[in-house]
Design goal:
This protein is of the alpha/beta class. The protein has 9 helices and 5 strands; from the N terminus they run H-E-H-E-H-H-H-E-H-E-H-H-E-H. It has a single domain, classed as Rossmann fold. It has a 5-stranded parallel beta sheet with strand order 2-3-1-4-5. It starts with a helix and ends in a 7-residue tail after the last helix.
C-alpha cells in the first residue's frame, strides 16, 4: 500500500448502492458482527427500502488503497489496514445518513466505536458458529484471518474475543433461521421505536 493509496482514503468517495437520502433515516445505521453475519445482505436490503446509500466499509477501503484487503494484510500487516480503516470509516460517518457495514474487526477499535456512538446507531447481527463456518467457507480465500488454520477454531476464537465488545452496540439482533426480509422488517420496526427511522 503506497502513500498515495493512503492519501486517497481521505479524498475519494467509495461507490455506493442506493439513492440520495430522503430524510427518513435520522442517523447512519452501522452494522457490526463477524464475517459471514449477513451485514452486506441485510444492509443492502435496508438501504434499498429506505432509499439511502449502502456502503461496505471493506469495499471503501479497497477503493481508497487501490489494492485488495489480502494484499494489504500480506504487504503491510494488520496495523496498516486498521489505520486506513479508521480514517475511511470516520469519513463515511460524517456523510449524510446511510447504511454502513463494518468489517468484522472494526467495532473492536476504540476510536471507531467512539465515532460510531457519536455519529451513528449501531446494530449487531449475532449469528451462531456453525452458520458462520458454512457462510465463510464459500469465500475463505478473500478472508485473510481464516487462512492461518482451522476456520471453525479461528471463528470460535474471534467470537470469544469480539462478542463482548459487539454487545456494546445499541441493539442486537439474532438472525437465526429468519430470511433477510424478515430480519430487515424487525430492524425497521425497532428503528421506528427508537426514533431513528421516521414512520411513514
Amino acid at each position: 500500500m503506497t502513500t498515495t493509496g493512503q492519501e486517497r482514503a481521505s479524498s475519494e468517495k467509495p461507490r455506493v448502492d442506493g439513492k440520495a437520502a430522503t430524510g427518513r433515516l435520522r442517523r447512519t445505521i452501522v452494522l457490526v458482527g463477524l464475517m459471514g453475519a449477513g451485514k452486506t445482505a441485510v444492509g443492502k436490503r435496508l438501504a434499498a427500502l429506505e432509499k439511502v446509500p449502502f456502503v461496505d466499509a471493506d469495499a471503501a477501503i479497497v477503493e481508497a488503497a487501490g489494492m485488495s484487503i489480502p494484499d494489504i494484510f500480506e504487504g503491510y500487516g494488520e496495523p496498516a489496514f486498521r489505520d486506513l480503516e479508521r480514517r475511511v470509516v470516520t469519513r463515511l460517518l460524517l456523510e449524510p445518513p446511510l447504511v454502513l457495514a463494518l468489517g468484522g474487526g472494526a467495532f473492536v477499535d476504540d476510536e471507531i466505536r467512539a465515532r460510531v456512538a457519536e455519529h451513528g446507531y449501531s446494530l449487531w447481527l449475532k449469528v451462531d458458529l456453525d452458520t458462520l463456518v458454512a457462510r465463510t467457507a464459500r469465500k475463505k480465500n478473500s478472508r485473510p484471518l481464516l487462512r492461518a488454520g482451522d476456520p471453525k477454531a479461528i471463528l470460535d476464537g474471534l467470537m470469544q474475543k469480539r462478542h463482548p465488545i459487539y454487545a456494546r452496540a445499541d441493539i442486537t439482533f439474532e438472525s437465526g433461521d429468519q430470511t433477510v426480509d424478515e430480519l430487515v422488517e424487525r430492524v425497521r420496526e425497532k428503528l421506528r421505536q427508537e426514533n431513528i427511522l421516521d414512520a411513514v
